[in-house]
Amino acid sequence: MSPMPDPPKVARGGVVLVDPPSGRPLRTIRFQYNPDTLTRTLQPQGIGGEPGDRQEALRLKGPPHETYKLDAEFDAAEQLADPDSNAVESSLGLRPVLAALESALYPSVQQLLQEDLMAGRGMIEVAPVEAPLTVLVLGTHRVLPVRLTDLTVTEDAFDTRLNPIRAKVSMSARVLTVDDLGFGHRGGLLYLAHHRAQEGYAAMVIRTPADLGLTSI
Prior knowledge:
It is a single chain. The chain is α+β, with helices and mostly antiparallel strands. Helices cover about 25% and strands about 30% of the residues. It has one domain (about 15-210). It has helices spanning about 75-80, 85-90, 95-100, 110-120, 180, 185-205; strands spanning about 15-20, 25-30, 40-45, 60-75, 135, 145-160, 165-175. Strand 1 and strand 2 (about 25-30) form a beta hairpin. The chain is globular and about 70 Å long.
């Protein structure tokens, strides 16, 4: 009897917070379960001329505005079944992983204290400190610089200390393009790599009007 083949390794999606100048990953949050569905919305960036403006009808001034919506689910039941090997989950449930996701939306305490100190001295900060770059990873072929625009956390099961042990995180993210970050920014380079890959995928679709029953257009 031949041995059963090993099951294929499933790629896990997640979020990586990256230090923009060095490219060093600061924090990686892996989705425990990959999302069942993913909704993408693309809005073209046209010139915005009036209807009937022949000079502007086909012009694009930049990449489209693209948003992603997905649900990430987390469940600590498996870890709680073996508390000796999962000390964090057994004492805190899902608080650490949820806090890690939410940290993409918060300035650090150090930044807040620094801003308060400067304000107390009558100083005005010209530009806030740059936050870590949020990178949405959905497989090796979809690595996107994003800004999280909405994060809804639904906690629907708790341990005896009211730590969440089952939760769903609904997130919306807007893809950051070279218009947002520039061509030299690490996030801009990530976007260009994604854009280049999209062009490569599109080039694989080889059809002619004849495939639609047309002799010419």
